[in-house]
Amino acid sequence: MTIRVAVAGATGRMGRLAIGLIEASDDLELHAALDSSSSLDEMLGADVAFDVTHPGASPAIVEFATGAGIPIVVGTSGWSNDRIAEIAQFMRGHDDAGAVLFIPNFSVGSVLGTAFSVLAARFFDSIEVIEAHHAGKVDSPSGTAVRTAELIGEARGDVGPVAAPHADQRARGQLVSGVPVHSMRLAGVLAEQRVVLGGDGETLTIAHSTLSPKSYEQGILLALRRAPHESGVVVGLDALLDLGIPGTGR
Question: How far is CA 201 from CA 123, 197, 205, in A?
Answer without folding.
Answer: 13, 11, 14
